[in-house]
Amino acid sequence: MKSRPVAKPRRGERKSKRVTILDVAEDAEVSFAAVSKVLRNAYGVSDGLREKVNASIKKLGYTPNTAARGMRGRTFVLGTIFPDLRNPFFSDILAGIGAALERTPYQSFLGIEVHSTAPALIQSMIDMQMDGLIVVGSTEPESYLSKVGERIPMVTVGYHLPQITTFDSVNNNDAQSARLTVQHLAKQGYKKLVMLSLETTIGNVIEERERGFLSQAEELGLAGAKVVRAPQTLRDIQVAARRILDEDRPDAIFCWTDFVALEVISVAESLGRSVPEELAIVGHDNTMYCDFEQNSLTSIDQSGEQLGLQAARLLVERIEGRTEAQHLVSQPRLVARNSSAHRG
């Protein structure tokens, strides 16, 4: 029985196959090594060579084989894990990470702790051979994070552990954030202060802010300053805000994040409490919504974009071989707006 001849592709047709670095090198009329250097963003690559290779990459639709790169020791993929995306401050951090990686060969993949836990996400990213991790707002214990840092280069954002050696961290001076807030409110004439904080089992960022709030209030003689904690769900924030306004009747509320502060403004206005005439409200993070005229929210600026930039920079340094831990702490500033205007 005769075998059937294999049909040859028609003229002008090209067999469907994965585009390789060799194809890019041939199209750009450069060596394999030159293409590899451009992909790795290696030192000494000229702008002309980079443009030539990138033009061929775009023309041919070349995409790196991540699995193969992983077997060679690096995938140029980083994992970024957030606790959720309800807080608009996290988008500022993400923008900073993206800006830092823009001129590098690294790409960032996003993981959200909504339907999974941080350990499960971290393990998945390790299994996918990602080169490093940025973990934002973690509530995992120090012992667990320390072990993760022994397995893969890692940077945390929003986790004060200056003594840790297995990973890097980038933080705001959170105690100072609260101190600035109390100083501002006292100067504006407010005397009965409440901090609406986050109900959490772990999370030393919140602990630092609470500590700074209470210690500064005590130093200024603001008797009765207290901390009230609530989960971050919308319903829980509303219930906590109503209870504070009905029972504690403060003249100023410091909220641990802008997301919460904006909801407290809504609750206060629904109860007939005018802001700032009867009640001052201060947020934290200075997200873009603070500057909207209808909000005009006084807030602590900790520059989320800078935190993201620094975190990505430190992670790439870790991947490239740095072993000594670095723990960066940025200094906040208070941006005053109408929500905490001076009491007449």
What proportion of the residues form beta strands (DSSP E)?
15-25%
Give the termini separation.
Answer: 103 Å
Uncertain runs: 1-9, 11-15
The helix content, as a percent range, equals 40-55%
Number of helices: 12
Q: Which CATH class of the largest domain is shown?
A: Alpha Beta
> What's the number of structural domains?
3
State the major sheet.
6 strands, parallel
CATH topology-level name of the largest domain: Rossmann fold
Mind explaining what this structure looks like?
The protein has 344 residues and is α/β, with parallel strands linked by helices. It has three domains: 43 residues, lambda repressor-like DNA-binding domains (434 Repressor (Amino-terminal Domain), Orthogonal Bundle); 129 residues, Response regulator (Rossmann fold, 3-Layer(aba) Sandwich), CATH 3.40.50; 136 residues, Response regulator (Rossmann fold). Helices cover 42% and strands 17% of the residues. The chain has twelve helices and twelve strands. The strands form two sheets. Strands 2-1-3-4-5-11 form a six-stranded parallel sheet, with helices on both faces. Strand 3, helix 7 and strand 4 form a beta-alpha-beta unit. Helix 10 packs across helix 11. It is elongated. 39% of the residues are buried.
Brief summary of the model shown:
The chain has helices spanning 21-28, 32-39, 47-60, 66-71, 89-101, 118-127, 142-151, 174-187, 204-219, 234-248, 258-270, 304-319, and strands at residues 77-82, 107-112, 132-136, 154-157, 168-172, 193-198, 226-230, 252-255, 280-284, 298-301, 327-330, 333-335. It is of the alpha/beta class. It folds into 3 domains: 21-63, 434 Repressor (Amino-terminal Domain); 71-172 and 304-330, Rossmann fold, CATH 3.40.50.2300; 174-302 and 334-340, Rossmann fold (3-Layer(aba) Sandwich), CATH 3.40.50.2300.
